[in-house]
Amino acid sequence: MKLHDVICFIEKRIPLSWSEDWDNSGLQVGDPGSEISKIGIALDVTEDTVNKASESGCGLLVSHHPIIFRPLRNIIPDRPAAKAVVSAIRNGLSLYAAHTNWDSSPEGVNFTLAELLGLDDIRPLRDPSDGSSWGMGAVGELMMPMSIDTVMKLIKERWSLSSCWTYGTAPALMIKRIALVGGSCGGMWTLAADKGASLFVTADISYHERQDALSCGLGLAEVDHGEMERASLPKLRSIIQKETGLAVELIPETERKSFIIQ
Predict the structure, then answer these.
(1) Based on the domain organization, do 45 and 60 belong to the same domain?
(2) 256, part of any domain
(3) Which among 186, 154, 161 has a CA at the least distance from the CA of 258?
(4) How far apart are CA 124 and CA 195, in angstroms?
(5) How many domains is the chain partitioned into structurally?
(6) Strand bridging mode 94-97 / 38-42
(7) What does the pLDDT look like over 129-139, one tens digit per residue?
(8) Residue 94 bridge partners (DSSP)
(9) 69-96: buried (b, 16+ CB within 10 Å) or exposed (e) per residue?
């Protein structure tokens, strides 16, 4: 199947019009006329995922995060992003990003995260300004109130997280309404508070965002950015496989271990 046809099938289900204005989703590297027989899926385009996708026989690697996000002044393989792009070109591997259009899909990152937690009455945390996409973030309710410890264990298990942190929540606090946004969206805590959530879950919360949210009585849970969004990739794989009819493989990413120094 030609790459431009593959892209048409993907964008039929996840249109680029759903992307944020500042985003750079879509085809990043590749010849639209090239033949594609197998597709790889990864959170990030790195030299590692490019090599693994190529070795697996993929002609296209679909990532969530765009490898070309800010303007590139040059493509010299002495830095990670440029090295990955050069490696992809050398291997004849096309690169495509489904970023904020996947975030705001009614099947995408945020809906999937809420669905995995078993939330009911799932709604977008922020409605789209033009009514085109489903919206950004998600808010919903647990079937019954749970202690914060139980909720954190649920989040860690259902999203396959290595760790998570809570702020401003007493051990005895019972949680029912949860708001969440995949990625770095600490600034959306105000929407979570407005929607009546008792807990807001996201990644990369800044010090001042945390202080402001806690002062308003909103409980916070912070998780790893990549781990959180990676939980949606099996759904993305299923959608692309169904739309294109091609073999689609999740490309494993090398684990980067962290160490705590005491």
Answers:
(1) yes
(2) no
(3) 161
(4) 10
(5) 2
(6) unpaired
(7) 777 899 999 99
(8) 60
(9) eeeeeeeeeeeebbbbbbbbeeeebbbb
Torsion of CA 261, 255, 67, 224, to 10 degrees: -60
Nearest of 19, 40, 16, 68 to residue 244 by alpha carbon = 40
**Residues 190 and 240 reside in one and the same domain:** no
Query: Are 15 and 81 contained in the same domain?
Result: yes
> Is the predicted pLDDT of residue 70 greater than 90, yes or no?
no
Here the tokens at position 100 are: 């904020």
Is pLDDT of 262 > 80?
no
If we measure between CA atoms, which residue out of 97, 105, 96 comes closest to residue 18? 105
Kindly state whether residues 128 and 240 are assigned to the same domain: no
In this structure, what token pair is assigned to residue 197? Answer: 């959530």
- Those residues whose C-beta lies under 8 Å from the C-beta of residue 102, and which sit 6 or more positions away, are 14, 25, 64, 108, 109, 232, 236
Residue 191 lies in a domain: yes
pTM: 0.94
- Which CATH number fits the domain that encloses residue 37? 3.40.1390.30
Query: What is the identity of the amino acid at 47?
Result: E
Note whether 115 and 8 are same-domain residues: no
Q: SS3 for the chain, per residue?
A: CEHHHHHHHHHHHCCHHHCCCCCCCEEEECCCCCECCEEEEECCCCHHHHHHHHHCCCCEEEECCCCCCCCCCCCCCCCHHHHHHHHHHHCCCEEEECCHHHHCCCCCHHHHHHHHCCCEEEECCECCCCCCCCCECEEEEEEEEEEHHHHHHHHHHHCCCCCEEEECCCCCCEEEEEEEEEEECHHHHHHHHHCCCCEEEEECCCHHHHHHHHHCCCEEEEECHHHHHHCCHHHHHHHHHHHHCCEEEECCCCCCCCCCCC
Looking at the structure, do residues 237 and 137 belong to the same domain, yes or no? no
